[in-house]
Each structure stands twice: as C-alpha cells, then as structure tokens.
Amino acid sequence: MAPAAGSCSCGAVKITFDTTPEVTVICHCTQCQKMTSGPFTTSVIIELDKLKVDGETKTYTSMKTGSGLPSYSHFCPVCGTMLYGTGDWSPGKAAVRTGVLDGDGLSRYVPSVEINAESKAKWLASQEGTMVFQKKPPAALTPRDI
Ligand SMILES: [Zn+2]
Ligand SMILES: [Zn+2]
C-alpha cells in the first residue's frame, strides 16, 4: 500500500506514514467533538515512530479523559487543524486523524470500532460492521482483536 500523506488546512504541517494501522477508530467523546467542532473523529492507530511530521506543531494537554490520564493533541499553530493525538492511554502510539489525509486516505481506512458512543450525536447512526462501545473497549481487548 502506498504511504499515506496529509496536511493541515493551511499546509504548514505535512504528515506521512508508511505502515498498516492497528485499527481505525471513530471516537464520539465530547473532547473530540469540541476539538474538531464536529460530531466525531476518525483516527488510525499507528506506532508513533512511524509518523513523520514536517512542520511545527503545538500541543494541547487535556486531562478531561475517561481514564484520567493526560491526552495530547498535536495541532497546527497557524490554522488550528488537529493532526494527531498521543497519550498515556497508549504510550508510543499515535492516533492520526484521517480527515487530514489526502487522496483516498479518508476512504482507505474503514473504521471497525466506535468508542465513547454514550456521547454520540443522537441523529447519527452507527456505521455498519463496527463494534460499538459506550466508553472505551475493555482493557483486555487489544486492537488486534477488533
Ligand atoms: Zn495549518
Ligand atoms: Zn475522543
């Protein structure tokens, strides 16, 4: 598969990765809703060291997580686009927002799991074929199981 490439809205930050994601996740949490000003985020989970970032990013640290562990949102300081998230929820991993990917990137990675469905927009149906969790998946369930 060709490497995935994307950028923020203004183009100051570009990202690429050349790896198969562990899983593609829709998150309906209220933090994702606020940070994207949309109903949910869709992210691929990859190894952080597989993500190449070209350009300066700023980091917002949020403690408003279900786990109580901090999460970090990495965004473009010029246009504010959120490019990827990291967190103590999964050290060494990055959750890359597929909405920033170019070409077929947004379509290529089909979500298999939806999390934090307890705050999902009421008018929004779950996607066909996804496993839906009201909060997070059980800790025993690794991305490989999903
Ligand atoms: Zn930008
Ligand atoms: Zn979220």
From TrEMBL:
Domain CENP-V/GFA: 4-124
An annotated Gene Ontology molecular function: metal ion binding
Annotated family: Belongs to the Gfa family.
Protein name in the entry: CENP-V/GFA domain-containing protein
Species annotation: Coleophoma crateriformis
Keyword Metal-binding: yes
Keywords from the named record: Lyase, Metal-binding, Zinc
Domain of life the protein comes from: Eukaryota
UniProt-listed Gene3D superfamilies: glutathione-dependent formaldehyde- activating enzyme (gfa)
Cross-referenced InterPro entries: CENP-V/GFA, Mss4-like_sf
Protein biosynthesis is among the record's keywords: no
